[in-house]
Automatic annotation (TrEMBL):
<keyword id="KW-0833">Ubl conjugation pathway</keyword>
<feature type="domain" description="OTU1-like C-terminal C2H2-type zinc finger">
    <location>
        <begin position="220"/>
        <end position="253"/>
    </location>
</feature>
<dbReference type="GO" id="GO:0016579">
    <property type="term" value="P:protein deubiquitination"/>
</dbReference>
<dbReference type="GO" id="GO:0005634">
    <property type="term" value="C:nucleus"/>
</dbReference>
<keyword id="KW-0645">Protease</keyword>
<keyword id="KW-0863">Zinc-finger</keyword>
<dbReference type="GO" id="GO:0008270">
    <property type="term" value="F:zinc ion binding"/>
</dbReference>
<keyword id="KW-0378">Hydrolase</keyword>
<feature type="domain" description="OTU1 Ubl">
    <location>
        <begin position="13"/>
        <end position="63"/>
    </location>
</feature>
<keyword id="KW-0862">Zinc</keyword>
<keyword id="KW-0963">Cytoplasm</keyword>
<keyword id="KW-0479">Metal-binding</keyword>
<dbReference type="GO" id="GO:0005829">
    <property type="term" value="C:cytosol"/>
</dbReference>
<dbReference type="Pfam" id="PF24560">
    <property type="entry name" value="zf-C2H2_OTU1_C"/>
</dbReference>
<keyword id="KW-0788">Thiol protease</keyword>
<protein>
    <recommendedName>
        <fullName>Ubiquitin thioesterase OTU</fullName>
        <ecNumber>3.4.19.12</ecNumber>
    </recommendedName>
</protein>
<dbReference type="GO" id="GO:0004843">
    <property type="term" value="F:cysteine-type deubiquitinase activity"/>
</dbReference>
């Protein structure tokens, strides 16, 4: 049996993930009970405790929220500061459903099922260049209207990725309370600096590549990008390709 920690009265920082978003719970201690934890969560999302299933730890384990366990302290679970809690809320079923409603719901479900049967998931790979997350987000945003063909190749656009990194860095720095160490896994300033450092390294790499091309006459022969197999003719084409994609590895194609 675990012993009660000496700092059981210290406030915990718990990240709580819901379907609608994520919150940080700051008003509980290790000495708080499961019942108090559930009350805090229900007050945030406005549902009854009976509709809540709570998961903690990694891999996620379901928390026993039965009546006999409600008096347990969080340190007994154990749930510690910085832990991520996942809240699953069951749908509330109407008390009285007549046969007409059942028919309408069945018909609605049939339509949804038919629409879903026409959908499918396509797995695309973003370049592994320290910007794959940003590249993936930008790809989805730019294809919001589904105008791109299925299987379109995902490439890194350094200019757009740089703008997105700067935007996120600024947002994180502007709200250190929301984007706290418990939320980010590191300090607010450290997270922002890390994003900017990767951006700086990418810019340095692009500058180095441009400097190398400046001393080489690439106006008349053909290059092949080693990273995406794109054929390029001339210095300007190679420079433009590097600026758009961040690719810097080329080889000459000899005839």
């Amino acid at each position: 049996m675990q012993a009660c920690p000496l700092n059981s009265k210290d406030l915990l920082k718990l990240r709580c993930r819901f379907r609608t978003g994520q919150y940080t719970l700051n008003d509980l201690t290790s000495d708080s009970t499961i019942d108090e934890l559930l009350q805090t969560i229900t007050s945030l999302i406005g549902v009854t405790q009976s509709r809540i299933s709570l998961y903690y730890g990694y891999p996620p384990k379901k928390l026993d929220c039965s009546i006999s366990s409600l008096s347990k302290h969080l340190w007994e679970i154990p749930i510690r500061s910085g832990d991520m809690l996942t809240v699953d809320v069951t749908e509330e079923k109407p008390a009285n459903v007549n046969s007409q409603n059942v028919k309408l719901q069945s018909h609605k479900h049939e339509i949804i099922s038919n629409k879903q049967s026409e959908s499918h998931i396509v797995r695309l790979c973003a370049p592994s260049d320290n910007s794959c997350l940003f590249t993936s987000v930008l790809f989805c945003m730019n294809n919001e209207d589904n105008h791109l063909k299925i299987g379109t190749k995902v490439i890194t656009n350094i200019a757009e990725v740089s703008n997105l990194r700067e935007l996120i860095s600024g947002i994180v720095l502007s709200d250190p309370i929301k984007y706290s160490e418990a939320f980010l896994g590191m300090s607010n300033e450290q997270y922002s600096n890390q994003i900017r450092q990767i951006l700086f390294e990418a810019q340095q790499l692009a500058s180095k590549a441009r400097a190398e091309w400046a001393f080489t006459d690439l106006s008349s022969f053909t290059l092949l990008c080693r990273q995406c197999d794109a054929p390029l003719v001339g210095q300007e084409a190679a420079q433009k390709h590097a600026q758009l994609t961040g690719h810097t590895q080329f080889r000459e194609i000899t005839h």
